[in-house]
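As the next step, I wrote out a protein sequence along with its fold in token form, included below for the reader:
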Amino acid sequence: MRDHTPRPPTPRLPTSRLPTSPGFWRSPLRGPWFTSVLGLVLLVGITVLFVTGLLSYAAYNPGLAPVNDKTPDKGLFGFYLFAWPTHPHWLYRLTQGVHVTFGITLIPVLLAKLWSVVPKLFALPPARSAAHALERISLLLLVGGALFEFVTGVLNVQLDYLFPGSFYPLHFYGAWVFFAAFVTHAALKTPAAVRNVRRMRGERDGRERQEAAGELVAPRPDPPTVSRRGALWFVGGASLLLWGTTAGRSFDGPLRRTALLAPHGGADPGSGPNGFQINKTAAYAGIAATETSEDAWRLVLTGRTGTVRLSRAELLRLPLHSAALPIACVEGWSTSDQWWRGVRLRDLAALVGHDEEPPDVLVESLQRHGAFRRAALRANQVADPRSLLALLVNGEDLSPDHGYPARIVVPAAPGVLNTKWVARMTFGDL
């Protein structure tokens, strides 16, 4: 038998408890001025990140050979690519160091900015006009793209990239989507942001509530515990802390010890002439001592006139040259200039018939694990007199972890193109 006793209606939550209601957001810190200051900082910072990221991709010379190209379906996104130069020799060290250090330093600013605009993500109606709909779409893409780019970038730097998939295409295409949303949003909001920042304090207290009621400024704010300027100082201090514990990995010596949050911070590995930062060890790369011994190892050169095989002793009898060059990695760390000594790449090209204009070269390593076992260098890199097949560093034989018996060293090139444990070099069309 059914119970026909009327049941009380299900109580509805007051609208102030729903994120779509302005009353849900109670912080007294939110407002156009606070959001605008953060937005203008990100306008500059993200532009720098995007430009240096594009330069980092160009430094790999992806248009040269498939072995260098980690985003083969880039299409029009590669319109800007150019032959990466060898001058100045610290170019990649600077651009990639700025890219990674800026990215980490901007994390508190980004999080504060996202927190400041989160009420807009829940505002109803979804679109009041075509311009408002475009702003909402750009905001959603901006938030999603920012989180994706910063998270994948940090994972690559800190944890040797644990995110599913390949870092290069995900980060590359994600950057274009993010920056397109960023440009759209900036074009819509920058004029208002500049006006908000320029307002005098008295105007800000009165007008900003009228302009942003129901979006950023809480209609019934909680009592303030800190001023908006105090909150900005807190965000700035957090960014300064991240900068101070990251930037040192771009230097050797005592400054590297300040990079507490960087994977290649702390003291340089070991001591002596080979006591500077490395990325892949010989053990990680699967290099066996038996295959790099004087009796077993031979460098194979192939070019216009055929093939030449050289032992390390024979290479040491060729004219040797020196160059002071750093090693700089996509992860943002770098070393100071090290004193390398070896045979010029253009002299090796001449041994196999390329006497006048050195061509491109494909370099192959003995390594069995890790990316860039094979890498291509452009003709301008081969021709530079500082580009060496290095046999010694800082007056001593290369250590196994630094690429013994021979490694490539090229000015301004990413570290992965400075191939270690070189086995074969093929000069000519790639």
User: Anything to note?
Assistant: The radius of gyration is 28 Å.
